[in-house]
Amino acid sequence: MLSGQPPLKGVIAPPHEEDETQVDLLYKDVQGKAFEFMKDKVSKLQWDELQELVAGLLRAMGYKTRVSPSGPDRGKDIVASPDGFGFESPRIIVEVKHRTGSAMGSQEVRSFLGGRHKDDKGLYVSTGGFSKDARYEAERASIPLTLMDLDDLVTAVLEHYEQMDADAQRLLALRKIYWPG
After folding, report:
1. Mean per-residue pLDDT, 35-53
2. Is the pLDDT assigned to residue 115 strictly greater than 90?
3. Using CA of residue 62, residue 115, residue 140, residue 150, what is the dihedral sign?
4. CATH code, 42-162
5. How far is CA 141 from CA 6, 114, 147, 167, in A?
């Protein structure tokens, strides 16, 4: 810098600000990679393990769950409610589809909705995601219906992981790391 000229602001960060920026960038990178690793791990679960993970998530959120046995389930893989029997509201009917790269369409969503009662709430989990038409179908449904794709599922698991029971945590064993803030 030449004498007599004002310093350039915002061009060169002081050393400690530069270090903080590098740490923030590194933190975001690690977070992003961890999220992708978790998605990969969820994708590698067996279909019944994925059902158990979703049931564990709902239990961590304060519901009691019943997981349907394997075989025809008539569009309800899990029933979640405060009492565990589905008598107390809210009664959440959950359909879990474990697919890779195959988005659920509007027909599958309509089929799921067709078997619901007026007081039911619906949760449709698909690791393959949902088509635009499926999302539209969910928005106009006569009962409240939440569509949960792989990103949504991993986000919810991260949010409630510490409250999940040991069986659910075992399906997606995570380690906590501490980062300077």
Report:
1. 95
2. no
3. positive
4. 3.40.1350.10
5. 63, 10, 12, 33
